[in-house]
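Hey, resending since the last one bounced:
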Amino acid sequence: MLRGLIKGDNAFVPTAALRVGVRSGVDVAALLVTEAGRVRGDADIVFHGAPAHGSGAVRLTGGEAGTVWLHTDLPGVEEGISRVLVVASTEEGALRDAPGLSVEVLGPDGGAVVAYEVTDAGPETAMVVAELYRRSGGWKFRAVGQGYVDGLTGLAVDHGVDVDEEPREAAEPTPAPTAAPAAPAAPEQPRDPAPGTRLTRDQILDMTPEQIRALALAQRQAGAQSGNRSGADAPLTASTPPDPSAWACGPVFEPRTATGRDNDVITVKDLPPGPVMVELGVKDGGYTGLWPLDDSNAKKDYLVSSTEKDFRGRVITSVPEHGRLRLRLEARGSWQVRVLPLAEARRLSESRLEGWGPEVLLHTGGTADVTFHYKGSSNFIVYLYKLAGHTDPTTLPKSGGAAVNEIGARKETLPLPEGPLLVFLSAADAPWTARLKDVRSHSGGPDTAGPLTQPQPRGALGWLRRARR
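The structure tokens again:
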């Protein structure tokens, strides 16, 4: 393993999609903090119970031999986040009992960029092992090694995490007096769905991309055992995982990455057929063009046509039935292409989402409005794809035309139908922000605009419970 940093050292790393491996079988989390060193809320904690940040820029996956991987898309980190902290902790024992505790950063080509081996761990049960932080327009890695004898409690409090387990409730109206109120019933404890019961749509919509991949694999295995190759006829139950197309469109697979320089033809093999995201980043250069190629090697309609110097963005294309996606790229400078499932699209929420360039967003709530602030001088084009009721993962539903097609800086608010819904910014060569407002629950559920009568569960409750031990 690359050995170059000791505690306190730092080094520049590429502003790219990096993989951060933490070894030694410890529990791993990431905290996305502001310049003040504090999280903005539970959503900025990435851990095993919430393995993907809402921005899509930080994801947590398991690995072999006790290694946990943090996938960090540095260009996609929101502007309000200045540091990504890599946290290690133990359920039992101290970190000094974790042999070979170390962190290593791998570049887009899989090569080691920088690494740090923790050699002085003591009785601590939680530690900020390392951090990625902004510096001089780029990103650096620092070997931190700051431990907490009081475990996740001290670490969480230091970084602005609310460790109060009690969920917040909205104020309820005072009830009218009654003659003799009955004794309140004991609260029912949450239970996992019984085997054979149907999963609700809300359960499906709450799934993370990692859960979707796992469920899709189980679905295919169940289908193969029953002789049904697609598993499409399998019932939607807790014992038989749902087809992910019930809430999202397109195949589910591990992302693929290709890198190179200047003009090229890119071939990605062995992909499942259907609509996918293509993420492109070009360093330097002038004009950037990207086209899918048909079976006769002819260009189809362009996916990207930009004169921005450092282009980056995500677009949608479709993988043919034979599973080979071929792309023609015209660019000057180094580039990286990633092919991703649509399930990895960034999620819209009532928190401000920041981006640059074309992007694919996913809305999974009820009816809502989305407000865009576009800061460019060129085209700003948005398409909506209604996924509700669309059960063919090999096709993309019809958009019905551009919901926005304007030129120049602007503020635009769109009414959105009930999710799941893809919101595709097909042209946006400049910074933009997006935020949901007036979000309502799905049809048949309570109107979230009114007073809440039930406690709202916290997204990082599992991690926070450990913080209180």
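Residues 166-202, 226-246, 444-457 have pLDDT under 50 and may be disordered.

Sorry for the duplicate.
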